[in-house]
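Holo prediction — zinc ion.
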Amino acid sequence: MRPMPPADMIEDVAIRFEPADEIISWARASFIEEDADLMNEDHAHLRSATIGALWTNVPNGRHGRRIIGQAEMGLPPGSKWSRARVEFQLQQWFGCVPDFVLTFDAEYCSVCSDVAFAALVEHELLHCGQARDPYGAPRFRKDGRPSFALRAHDFEGFVSIAARYGIVESGVQELVEALKKKPLFTAEEVGFCCGTCEARKAA
Ligand SMILES: [Zn+2]
């Protein structure tokens, strides 16, 4: 059973952000853990990551395209007070500052298909990467945990999304190549737009 946003959230005119721990438990059981139903090895480093998820009813878009998901580092860059304010809010929601924070559009997620929701969550999880050294080897912190970093679509792991869901993402040749293979799921096209991708395109 996939997680669903609170029913009263979508019609609410007030700004709402609500922690969605159920998305992360579901994602771990579905994609991340070693015994996950649809385990994807590209998420293996996330077994030791803390991830916070939020539902929101705030519409988001860019250049006429609707944005329905976004992945960020837990604590974004900024001034001391900006960061402290974010840290305060994250503590209220999650009891910690997670390594990553994912945000999902409640309205879209309440009406999309199960496959589209799974593809969206996996897409955002793939942005949650492990930092690499200049030779391409994964980086670790002194305490042995992976050193985390956001990653863009040029990461080859995004190919696994196309292989699993058959998503068409224009301008990415590897994805097109992956689409020539038989997808794990039905080749349903999922035309969603992600805030993390759009921010990177603009940068
Ligand atoms: Zn994206």
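READOUT: The CA atoms of residues 33 and 47 lie 6 Å apart.
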